[in-house]
Amino acid sequence: MSMLLAVDFDGTLATRDTVDWVSAHYAPEVFAVADAAFAQGEITLDECLVQQVAPIRASEQEIVDFMVETVEVRPGVPELIHFCEAQAIELVIVSSGFDNLMHPFLLAHGYDLPIRAHTLEFGPEGPVVRLRGRSPCAVCGVACKRAEVRELATGRRIAYVGDGPSDLCAAEDADLRFARASLAEHLEREGYDYVPFENFHDVRVGLATAIGVAP
Where do the structural domains in the chain lie, given as residue ranges? Predict the structure, then answer.
């Protein structure tokens, strides 16, 4: 059965929210202010990203090295990749983080996966966020992942895996949802069906059950 599996990165594939983790490490005071403003609904997620990384003066390689040293990949990814290849399921990372940090992080862990995300450009004045240019969503009103995931699916069924605020709208729109942390709490509160997960073995088994094959 043809399907798109859209997987969030921060707090989902990676065991930490790497944008928060990096910002809290290199610019703790600014991180705390921006994080609180986002939590209170005073700024959007994209505005929060820009504020969090603006004061960082570490190099791109220093940040990647820090991520590799302090962040792990959630267990079960190799088995999930093999399962998706066998079942003709397209696995794509769809993230509100930065592709040029994710790619080398994943390669260091032995994975080369397609990523749809923003970019963090490094220059003499510090890092600059280059947003992907996602269209404003007719449902939530901000430039979220919903339309991008729907476009990637090209009419196929969508399975979505996520954990946090950036995943809400895309997860609601999916045919099959895997959730943990605040995303699971949101879906539970709003009455959406979902499969809880703590690792990607859970996701693989859930996918197999949904399409009626052995995991």
Answer: 3-15+72-211
Query: What pLDDT digit, counting tens, does each position of 40-81 carry?
Result: 999 999 999 999 999 999 999 999 999 999 999 999 999 999
Task: Collect all residues with Cβ–Cβ distance below 8 Å to 187 and sequence separation of at least 6.
Answer: 171, 172, 177, 179, 193, 194
C-alpha of 169 from chain center: 13
CA dihedral 128, 131, 197, 25 (to 10 degrees): 10
Contact 157, 141 (CB under 8 A): no
Query: Which ranges constitute the DSSP H helices of 94-145?
Result: 99-108
Class of domain 3-15+72-211: alpha beta
pTM: 0.95
DSSP-derived 3-state class of residue 204: helix
* Four-residue CA torsion sign, 52, 57, 63, 67: negative
Tokens for 171, please give them: 């997860």
Interval 170-187: pLDDT, tens? 999 999 999 999 999 999
Which residue, among 64, 62, 34, has the nearest Cα to 50 in the 3D structure? Answer: 34
Which of helix, strand or coil describes residue 186? helix
